[in-house]
Amino acid sequence: MRSDRIRATFFDFFGGLDHLERPPGPLVTDERGLLFTNAGMVQFKPFFMGLSRPPHPRLMTAQRCVRTVDIDRIGLTDRHGTGFEMLGNFAFADYFKRESMAWALELLTDGFGLERDRLWMTVLRGDEESVDLWRGLGVPAERIQRLGPDDNFWSMDMPGPSGPTSEIFYDRGPAVGRDGGPAVDSERFVELWNLVFMQYERGRSDDEILGDLPGRHIDTGLGLDRLAMVLQGVDNLQSIDVVTPTLRAVREATGRDDEPAAHRLVTDHVRTAVVLIAAGVRPGNEGRGYVVRRLLRRAVRRLVLLGVDEPVLGPVADSVTGVLAGETREVVEREERAFRRTLRAGNRLLDTALSQGPLGGATVFKLHDTYGFPVDLTVEIAREHGVSVDTDGFARLMREHRERSRATRQ
């Protein structure tokens, strides 16, 4: 099933259950503390908090999201991506656990044709109500696992709405990994859908619950990319229909097909960077701009390691579906050319330093200040060589540099 059909099936199902479709929220959010929209519920935070009324008690969206918390795992796992699309159904003081569980199970099996006996559920340890509800829907007890709050409690990682979750996983089979459910192997048992029972107001951490929200709400997120991976019978997120053109462009750029993890990393990073550039973000040294810069620099470095010595990311950027070319391509090409110059200059110093043992703070600072070598890239390269880095020393030198700069301006 193609991605556009997955989206249409989702909307048809929940539209038939009186959910009003809303446009996706902006990828560059106004929410303080968030660089980018990382979940479908972000635009609805005021509704969950009782600060304003939703246009309808039941809503649904298809939201493009960006998360970079797992950036080091891209290409190494099947299921991670920095950019993805999340399908969500939401209820504000309307239905709650029973309905959201029943409808998710119905849509996955009857709507998308997944085998019921390959679905596993997780719940927050101590939430026996959810266990009983799943069992009442015919899910065997042995396919319901109780996990801790790191897995089954959701918040925005900031003060705001939060609540326990129940997640739905699909068993991809013994060829992928070990048996034992999602508690044992999250590659074989891939998470598809997160049902959040939004009922608490979170403080400064997930351990600080300030009280109940004005109502009990539902916030769900079905990963379209992961569901497409399962329904299309491909091995990873970068091989689904909407991403394949970019993966193909990367392979053409390298002229080789023997480094799948590297190709997938470049595909993921360029695709997300292009989407962010199209949303108005430009590469820079801080905040959102640094995310774009970091993604493109990681992609360029991987291309260099593959033996690609000339700029090639322009055509790769053009391959990203749903994004217009033109200025976006120009930004990518300009950033690639600049960073290739940085790499050529900085690599000589870095190679010499790595051969001499641990990297001192002064060396890391010189790479950053003189050659524009980002510290996170230095750390990443050093880790690949098994060499430690004095990041504390670098941070101290950076503070001293900034203090001198402020004094000079005054």
From TrEMBL:
EC annotation from Swiss-Prot or TrEMBL: 6.1.1.7
Keyword entries, A-Z: Aminoacyl-tRNA synthetase, ATP-binding, Ligase, Nucleotide-binding, Protein biosynthesis, RNA-binding, tRNA-binding
InterPro entries in the cross-refs: aa-tRNA-synth_II/BPL/LPL (IPR045864), Ala-tRNA-lgiase_IIc (IPR002318), Ala-tRNA-ligase_IIc_anticod-bd (IPR018162), Ala-tRNA-synth_IIc_core (IPR018165), Ala-tRNA-synth_IIc_N (IPR018164), Ala-tRNA_ligase (IPR050058)
Record-annotated Alanyl-transfer RNA synthetases family profile domain positions: 1-410
Keyword Ligase attached: yes
CDD domains according to UniProt: AlaRS_core
Family: Belongs to the class-II aminoacyl-tRNA synthetase family.
Record PANTHER family: ALANINE--TRNA LIGASE, CYTOPLASMIC, ALANYL-TRNA SYNTHETASE
Protein name (database record): alanine--tRNA ligase
